[in-house]
């Protein structure tokens, strides 16, 4: 079975502004790296073509008035916040990005591919029901999850490991017990939400699990959280599908965040998720690209790591260039793991009465 | 203007001299390349199509090729040594010469391929490995990958291994032919011509050039740009579709793997003039037809028994006439079925036996057939009248002040905007084609096959620009032969 990669040169054309961090240069080097690795020609990889999401599909997640606002502002240009302007033509771009996530999910459900990675732009996890922000306009992963529900997946696990908290996704599924939202993100950082005590509401209580981590958290912190929290909770939840908000901004070279994951750490994290999906839901997993702004330093190597892990390729060569060593040492916080062990103790108290594995 | 074309086939070498009139000749390969060249009084431009030795080599069991790879971070690769070039062409990790010497000592092989990731953006590491390897291998048994100019390290590696195996034999041919004509050109698998220098950088371009030659020859002889060329050879009959004046190209896989080798799309049916007749016509060649001194009756002998007079027709006499007629009918219906499956409206005959078989094939397939004069040597005519084709893949990085053209870095002297850059690259491809001897009119039309460019932003400011483009002069018939 193959891994699908949803990618289209049109994903390179979205630009809020030529100097904006979320710009076309972002995927250009990554595209070079994938091409040079022979990924597009590899029999284990199937390139999937995105389709524009329909207006109806967007409305599974977003408020009609918000969508009207986006569509109209896209004609002339507009503003959501200082980081998130609406360039003319945006609506077509966000429909294509959301459609990229949908194609990833559809291809997995149809059995065309075992799992898939939607390498889309712009990202989506900060977009809520009726708001955008943080470079996001529509919530690609939430739209994917809603379509999976309509395809008969009763329970879906979202694993959001972007450096920033996926406040939009959390808001959308906050009261939904069928969608378990788990997030590892840098604490005390944009957008400010994602405290361990935010655990969902109503019937969804306990179905939001936030794991804030301090700046400088690296591979062992992620492996610890996967082993101690995400793995056991996923087993107890027993999902039909795993959706990953795959941010690439936790790499130690990222200019917009302060974490210290390595390319090898990304591969190991994705390999864990793939193994989990294999054990719990016949391998059904789709990842959607979120942030990641170390366009040249980190993205080429982290993206290869993620795809190689999805496709079950040899991960022994996945690493960062050795010349990045000083950058890693500057970003790495050796005390982060101890701090996170404290956080997990807190999680056990706030979630222990809902999740047996945490009690 | 006078053009000489030579196509070295499986059993014969075809020669065509075109100067308004067409003169053709067939000489058996026994005399070798020198024999063919000796028989010629070469004037004008000489072009040589010589894919046979390469085709045989590629089809043969793999020779022992050692590949040294410099994969850097990412997917690992067998034969890897330390060193890393990144996507910008920066060297982020150096090679370890001592480790490379040890690897070369431990892996004895006949040929050496050197392939590093992103070497097409900076060939320095491959060149360093090559200079170390020169103490272990003769230069003509070493191939590097950067000249292939395209990203896709695994495909480059496969192609470089092919090149390592064929470089020596191609270099020997270059020396032989240069003794007869200094500025000769090679005919490539895409139907275009290239200088010996260009071919030595990537000899795989010579692969399977015969179908391209016959397609171009048929086009030249008939003026048809949409037809199916039926080329009746000794071992096979090839059906080569021509659309809008050009054959269709396809990727060639080597041992099931992707490579940067392309060739003309053709359906090869395993029956030809030398196919032996046992109880029935068999898809096998066992030497020459009896009419040409062979020991087994063949399709050619069968034609003789049906009234033709090919070679020493009397030698075909002991083939039973009924079996002969049956073999010819079987051949015609097999080829006609291939023609019908192709949807062609018009077929053009080519090859030694075209005169004897094409009209019947056309009748049975229900399509119009054209049998041009000199059909027997259409391939050599195609070689003679072809033109220089050339593609430049250019990567420009203003931040590094570097332009890399087909894997070779050049210093960037001046800033150019996108339009100026495209114009400059078009000028460069023209200049290089003219250097290979192309007439002005042949290089007038340069196509921009690919263009992509973006700004490099650092600290919120536009700093640099990166552009990738491909400009090309496509294969065709040289204006001087029209
Ligand atoms: Zn982010």
Describe what you observe in this structure.
The complex is a heterodimer of chains A (359) and B (482). Chain A has 359 residues and is an alpha/beta fold. Chain A has one domain (3-358): 3-Layer(aba) Sandwich (Arginase, Chain A). Chain A contains eleven helices and ten strands. Chain A has helices at residues 25-36, 55-59, 64-76, 90-109, 140-150, 167-172, 219-237, 263-280, 299-310, 325-331, 336-351, and strands spanning 3-6, 45-48, 78-81, 84-86, 115-118, 156-160, 179-186, 208-213, 241-246, 285-289. An eight-stranded parallel sheet of chain A has the order 2-1-5-10-9-6-7-8, with helices on both faces. In chain A, strands 3-4 form a two-stranded antiparallel ribbon. In chain A, helix 8 packs parallel to helix 9. Chain A is globular, with a radius of gyration of 19 Å. Chain B has 482 residues and is α+β, with helices and mostly antiparallel strands. Chain B has four domains: 3-53 and 172-223, Nucleotidyltransferase, domain 5 (2-Layer Sandwich); 65-169; 227-377, Nucleotidyltransferase, domain 5 (2-Layer Sandwich), CATH 3.30.420; 390-481, no CATH class. Chain B is built from twelve helices and 26 strands. Chain B has helices spanning 32-38, 51-59, 97-106, 124-133, 153-178, 196-201, 210-222, 299-305, 321-341, 354-365, 378-385, 418-435; strands at 3-8, 12-19, 21-28, 45-49, 65-70, 84-85, 91-93, 111-116, 142-144, 185-187, 193-195, 227-232, 237-243, 246-247, 249-254, 257-264, 267-269, 275-277, 281-285, 346-351, 368-370, 390-397, 402-405, 408-411, 447-458, 461-473. The mean pLDDT of chain B is 92. Classes of the chains: A alpha/beta (359), B alpha+beta (482). The interface between A and B is medium-sized, with 33 and 31 residues. Bound molecules: zinc ion. Residues 162-164, 247, 249, 290-291 of chain A line the site of zinc ion.
């Amino acid at each position: 079975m193959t891994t699908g990669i949803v990618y289209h040169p049109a994903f390179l054309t979205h630009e809020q502004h030529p100097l904006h961090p979320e710009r076309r240069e972002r995927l250009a080097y990554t595209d070079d790296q994938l091409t040079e690795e022979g990924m597009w020609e590899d029999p284990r990889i199937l390139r999937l073509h995105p389709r524009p999401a329909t207006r109806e599909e967007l409305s599974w997640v977003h408020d009609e008035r918000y969508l009207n606002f986006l569509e109209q502002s896209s004609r002339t240009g507009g503003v959501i916040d200082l980081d998130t302007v609406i360039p003319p033509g945006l609506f077509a771009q966000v429909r294509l990005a959301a459609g990229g996530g949908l194609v990833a999910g559809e291809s997995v459900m149809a059995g065309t591919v075992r799992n898939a990675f939607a390498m889309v732009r712009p990202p989506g996890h900060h977009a809520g029901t009726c708001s955008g922000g943080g470079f996001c306009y529509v919530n690609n992963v939430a739209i994917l999850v809603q379509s999976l529900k309509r395809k008969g997946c009763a329970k879906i696990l979202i694993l959001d490991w972007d450096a920033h908290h996926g406040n939009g996704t959390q808001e959308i599924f906050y009261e939904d017990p069928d969608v378990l939202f788990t997030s590892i993100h840098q604490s005390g950082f944009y957008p400010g939400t994602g405290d361990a005590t935010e655990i969902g509401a109503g019937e969804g209580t306990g179905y939001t699990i936030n794991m804030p981590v301090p700046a400088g958290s690296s591979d062992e912190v992620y492996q610890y959280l996967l082993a101690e929290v995400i793995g056991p909770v996923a087993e107890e939840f027993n999902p039909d599908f795993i959706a990953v908000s795959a941010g690439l901004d936790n790499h130690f070279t990222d200019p917009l965040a302060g974490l210290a994951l390595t390319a090898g750490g990304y591969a190991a994290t994705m390999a864990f998720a793939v193994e989990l999906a294999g054990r719990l839901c016949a391998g059904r997993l789709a990842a959607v690209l979120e942030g990641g702004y170390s366009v040249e330093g980190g993205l080429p190597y982290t993206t290869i790591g993620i795809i190689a892990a999805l496709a079950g390729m040899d991960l022994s060569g996945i690493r960062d260039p050795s010349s990045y060593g000083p950058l890693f040492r500057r970003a790495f916080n050796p005390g982060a793991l101890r701090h996170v062990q404290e956080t997990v103790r807190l999680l056990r108290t706030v979630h222990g009465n809902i999740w047996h594995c945490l009690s | 203007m006078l053009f000489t074309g030579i196509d070295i086939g499986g059993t014969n070498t075809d020669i065509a001299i075109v100067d308004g009139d067409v003169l053709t000749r067939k000489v058996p390969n026994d005399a070798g390349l020198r024999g063919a060249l000796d028989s010629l009084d070469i004037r004008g431009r000489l072009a040589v199509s010589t894919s046979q030795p390469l085709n045989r080599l590629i089809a043969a069991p793999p020779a022992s090729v050692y590949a040294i790879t410099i994969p850097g971070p990412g997917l690992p690769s067998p034969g890897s040594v330390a060193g890393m070039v990144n996507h910008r062409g920066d060297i982020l990790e150096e090679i370890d010469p001592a480790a490379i010497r040890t690897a070369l000592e431990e892996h004895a092989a006949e040929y050496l391929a050197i392939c590093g990731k992103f070497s097409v953006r900076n060939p320095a590491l491959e060149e360093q490995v090559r200079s170390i390897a020169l103490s272990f291998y003769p230069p003509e048994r070493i191939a590097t990958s950067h000249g292939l100019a395209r990203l896709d390290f695994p495909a480059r590696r496969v192609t470089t291994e092919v090149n390592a195996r064929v470089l020596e034999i191609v270099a020997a041919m270059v020396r032989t032919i240069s003794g007869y004509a200094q500025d000769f050109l090679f005919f490539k698998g895409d139907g275009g011509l290239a200088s010996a220098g260009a071919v030595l950088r990537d000899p795989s371009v010579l692969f399977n050039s015969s179908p391209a030659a016959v397609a171009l020859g048929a086009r030249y002889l008939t003026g048809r740009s949409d037809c199916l060329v039926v080329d009746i050879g000794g071992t096979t009959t090839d059906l080569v579709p021509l659309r809008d004046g050009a054959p269709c190209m396809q990727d060639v896989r080597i041992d099931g793997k992707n490579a940067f080798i392309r060739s003309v799309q053709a359906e090869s049916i395993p029956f030809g003039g030398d196919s032996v007749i046992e109880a029935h016509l068999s898809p096998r060649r066992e030497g020459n037809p009896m009419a040409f001194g062979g020991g087994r009756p063949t399709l050619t002998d069968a034609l003789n028994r049906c009234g033709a007079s090919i070679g020493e027709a009397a030698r075909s006499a002991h083939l039973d006439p009924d079996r002969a007629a049956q073999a010819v009918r079987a051949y015609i219906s097999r080829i006609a079925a291939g023609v019908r499956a192709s949807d062609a409206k018009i077929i053009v005959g080519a090859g030694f036996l075209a005169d004897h078989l094409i009209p019947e094939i056309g009748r049975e397939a229900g399509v119009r057939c054209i049998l041009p004069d000199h059909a027997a040597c259409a391939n050599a005519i195609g070689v003679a009248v072809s033109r220089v084709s050339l593609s430049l893949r250019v990567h420009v990085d203003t931040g590094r002040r570097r332009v890399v053209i087909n894997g070779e870095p050049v210093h960037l002297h001046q800033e150019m905007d996108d339009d100026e850059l495209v114009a400059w690259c078009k000028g460069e491809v023209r200049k290089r084609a003219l250097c290979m001897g192309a007439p002005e009119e042949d290089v007038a039309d340069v196509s921009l096959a690919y263009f992509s460019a973006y700004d490099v932003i650092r600290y919120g400011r536009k700093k640099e620009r990166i552009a990738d483009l491909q400009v090309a002069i496509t294969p065709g018939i040289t204006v001087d032969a029209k």
